[in-house]
Amino acid sequence: MNITVFGSGYVGLVTAACLADVGNRVLCVDVDPEKIATLKAGHCPFYEPGIDSLLVRNAKGGRLDFTTDAARGVAHGEIIFIAVGTPPQEDGSADLQYVLAVARTIGQHMADYKVVCTKSTVPVGTAAKVREALAAELAARRLALPYDVVSNPEFLKEGAAVEDFMRPDRIIVGTDNARALDKMRQLYAPFNRNHDRVMAMDVPSAELTKYAANAMLATRISFMNELALLAEQVGADIESVRRGIGSDPRIGFHFLYAGAGYGGSCFPKDVKALIRTGGEHGQSLQVLHAVEAANEHQKQELFRRISAYLGSVKGRTIALWGLAFKPNTDDMREAPSRVLMEAIWAAGGKVRAFDPVAMETTAKIYGERADFTLVDSPEAACEGADVLAIVTEWSAFKAPDFARIKALLKTPAIFDGRNLYDPAAVQAAGLHYQGIGRARLG
Ligand SMILES: NC(=O)c1ccc[n+]([C@@H]2O[C@H](COP(=O)([O-])OP(=O)(O)OC[C@H]3O[C@@H](n4cnc5c(N)ncnc54)[C@H](O)[C@@H]3O)[C@@H](O)[C@H]2O)c1
Ligand SMILES: O=c1ccn([C@@H]2O[C@H](COP(=O)(O)OP(=O)(O)O[C@H]3O[C@H](CO)[C@@H](O)[C@H](O)[C@H]3O)[C@@H](O)[C@H]2O)c(=O)[nH]1
């Protein structure tokens, strides 16, 4: 099939590359000429495991191309995906300007039947707005062309995006139109071999399913983070509690890790947007208000602990391992590391940080500053620092040389925002250790 994908970010590019890899001819359209030039030169503008080889293979095979020419994009695809950003506005609602701009572009250029698919995460009612925007453009051209608007939210996780797309748990297709559903089933057939993963439903249910999934996962994390703080007070260990409850199949082990708070481009924004949707319909989502508040509190937790331990961070240097909001990505959107670093700087402290892939993205955000040094190894971050904080659970941090860390730090202490180590082992190596929700020793 001929497919067009508007938006060449994490979702658009992964969607495009995976659809091309099973034989479709996919054209990616983006408004960012630099991004398109990078892609045309065979490079991915961000770090995502497995994407580079897909891009190169499918571009060479003539199944994947990139353009800023929207008219060409509209002409190309029988199915057109909208995979542009939906960032939060001041009031927490999702900003639909990019989605609706693409809808208008499609209306301005289409000349035959199209299935228009919202892949961006959009609030209930957006497919109807896309339909209206498109209809208005067609009316202005005095054309009555057929089209269907389908909701097809994406559930991939950064760092595992290609794998998630290739082997989806489910493929949600929101439509009330049999012809559009049939096209979507054809498109997803190659990802659907062992059992039917396509779940057809009405459009509002599809749109709400996406927010419900993210809000449920964020709720589990905030619940575990609050429980971790309680565990410390009562002398329990959150890791034991996690194993104890996760073994109940009604609860399960996924997304039960206490830590430095959830970040990324999705959970914080989507929880906010769902709260906002609730407000618009007179339905207060009290659980989600609490989930958000608990997360804000949790993101400050490492700073509170470090300040309490040192007395003050003024004039101190904190070594930081991990910058990205999670491992295997260079994405810094809403990363807990940012909250920690900004709090340290505001209090007059300095940061020496290392991350295996996110240092370039971080440098672009913060630029040159006297109180910030990016270094090229975990050990170098500790050189001359007072204490070490860990914010991202990169594999490279999982088995460090504690004796070496002790020798490098002025006040040997580890504040572990991801519970990577056995507290007893770190303390036996002569370092002060604080995880999140770990039993206090001695
Ligand atoms: N990142 C994720 O893990 C993830 C997962 C599932 C769903 N989502 C949702 O998918 C959507 C996209 O997220 P993302 O992380 O890929 O965003 P992103 O910011 O990485 O990429 C968005 C791209 O859209 C482009 N764009 C903006 N306006 C355009 C237009 N008119 N025409 C063509 N391109 C345009 C931008 O230049 C940018 O390259 C969001 O709604 C997000 O919530 C994201
Ligand atoms: O037990 C856990 C699991 C995750 N996190 C944190 O939660 C955040 C989000 O992690 P993750 O969900 O793995 O990453 P995303 O790439 O943001 O993916 C989420 O958001 C996407 C965008 O909507 C969805 O498509 C995915 O299904 C959903 O998992 C990160 O800061 C993690 O550190 C925890 O603190 N504890």
Automatic annotation (TrEMBL):
**Which residues are annotated as active site?**
C266 (nucleophile)
Q: Name one Pfam family in it.
A: UDPG_MGDP_dh_C
* Biological process (GO), any one: UDP-glucuronate biosynthetic process
**Is Oxidoreductase among the key words of this record?**
yes
Source organism, top-level taxon: Bacteria
Question: Ranges for the UDP-glucose/GDP-mannose dehydrogenase C-terminal domain?
Answer: 319-423
Reaction catalyzed: UDP-alpha-D-glucose + 2 NAD(+) + H2O = UDP-alpha-D-glucuronate + 2 NADH + 3 H(+)
UniProt entry tagged with the keyword Transmembrane = no
Q: Which InterPro entries match?
A: 6-PGluconate_DH-like_C_sf, NAD(P)-bd_dom_sf, UDP-Glc/GDP-Man, UDP-Glc/GDP-Man_DH_C, UDP-Glc/GDP-Man_DH_C_sf, UDP-Glc/GDP-Man_DH_dimer, UDP-Glc/GDP-Man_DH_N, UDPglc_DH_bac
Q: Which GO terms describe its molecular function?
A: NAD binding; UDP-glucose 6-dehydrogenase activity
Which UniProt keywords are present, listed alphabetically? NAD, Oxidoreductase
Can you name this protein? Answer: UDP-glucose 6-dehydrogenase
